[in-house]
Specification:
Layout lengths: L1 E2 L2 H6 L1 H17 L19 E5 L6 H15 L7 E5 L6 H10 L6 E6 H9 L10 E16 L7 H10 L5 E4 L5 H12 L8 E4 L3 H9 L5 E5 H9 L3 E6 L23 E8 L5 H15 L2 H9 L3 E6 H21 L5
Parallel strand pairs: 1-3, 2-3, 2-4, 6-7, 6-8
Antiparallel strand pairs: 4-10, 5-8, 5-9, 5-10, 5-11
Length: about 350
């Protein structure tokens, strides 16, 4: 598996545009062979699978993309190899815009998406949406962790929430992008203790690579983000885990749920994969088949366990319907919280 950077993506733009243009010209002239545009399941994949993480390295999108690429290659699902590249910016919508605009008809391109991106699309000037992609699979569900620096005065969630209720602005909360799962969780915690959304001091970070040092340095008093993003620092004693956002206790995690700590709040993030627009039904089915085969590998199942990710598989049309429902629900939630109008 090859790990690439944003710089590599920028250098590769011209060839990808050229490839898309060539496909378009062939289609217009009728000189492309099979007009069905299908690559059979037996032939797929015939090229390297490239997986975009629409965020900086170190965060949940990045972890998921690299886990998928590793499981495809090391799990023996594909022989063509896999690559991961990062396109940060605009809460994931920069990557989405690039993905849709440059890869139409290419089933060897995949992009990691999640609940965060659904909300981000509502808040930015993105010219594309998830409706412009081809739904492939929902793969994981992950719960947020509430953490503080190891030296923090707050030893329990109750102590943190008491300080938050008494003086909301004094608690700088760190988390992921604006309007994402982390901010929604903090807003729900605020609501649980009667703090107005406008009083929340929330500082968004584009990925775990930025958020982690902000916590360790004390730039934020507390943070909410995916448990897997903090696990190494928790294990090393550099962060204190106060609670998790699951409805039930997580096996092997020495922390209460937020509900058990006394606040009726829970939330789960999910992540999955989409392909570009304009791939054929046969190509879509081949991609889904590849992902389902990856899902069954020992490598992927070990990844789920290691990262405390719940297995949340849903594919094809059912995933597409799920995305439509999520769009409606998240739009309503963000409106209710005053994050969007």
């Amino acid at each position: 598996m090859t790990i690439s950077t944003t710089k590599k993506v920028r250098l590769a733009l011209a060839p990808r545009w050229a490839a898309s243009l060539a496909v378009g010209l062939l289609a217009l002239t009728g000189c492309g062979g099979d007009s069905g545009g299908g690559e059979s399941a037996e032939e797929y994949p015939s090229e390297t699978i490239e997986v975009m993480a629409p965020a900086d390295p170190g965060g949940g999108y990045d972890q998921t993309a690299r886990s998928i690429a590793r499981s495809l290659s090391e799990g023996g699902v594909i022989e063509t190899g896999s690559e991961v590249y990062n396109v940060p910016g605009a809460s994931g919508t920069a990557g989405l815009t690039q993905f849709v605009g440059e890869n139409a008809g290419n089933p060897h391109q995949l992009m990691v998406i999640g609940k965060i991106l659904v909300g981000a699309i509502q808040q930015t000037d993105a010219q594309v949406s998830l409706a412009d992609t081809t739904p492939i699979a929902r793969l994981t569900a992950e719960y947020d962790a509430i953490v503080v620096p190891a030296a923090s005065e707050y030893e329990t969630l109750e102590q943190l929430m008491d300080a938050f209720e008494a003086d909301p602005g004094s608690i700088a909360w760190g988390g992921g992008s604006v309007g994402g799962v982390d901010q929604i969780l903090v807003a729900q915690l605020a609501d649980a203790v009667g703090v107005e959304p406008s009083e929340i001091n929330y500082i968004p970070y584009s990925g775990g690579g930025e958020l982690t040092p902000a916590i360790l340095s004390g730039d934020v008093a507390a943070a909410a983000s995916g448990l897997a993003e903090f696990q190494d620092q928790i294990d090393a004693g550099e962060m204190r885990l106060l609670a998790v956002s699951s409805e039930e206790p997580i096996e092997g995690i020495d922390a209460p749920t937020i509900i058990d700590a006394g606040y009726d709040v829970s939330i789960a993030n999910w992540r999955g994969l989409v392909a570009p627009p304009e791939i054929s039904d046969e190509q879509r089915d081949a991609v889904i088949s590849m992902v389902e085969e990856m899902h069954a590998t020992e490598e992927w199942q070990e990844t789920l366990t290691a990262n405390n990710w719940d297995d949340f598989l849903l594919t094809g049309d059912e995933f597409g319907e799920y995305l439509e429902a999520e769009d409606e629900n998240i739009t309503q939630t963000l409106t209710d919280l005053g994050i969007i109008e």
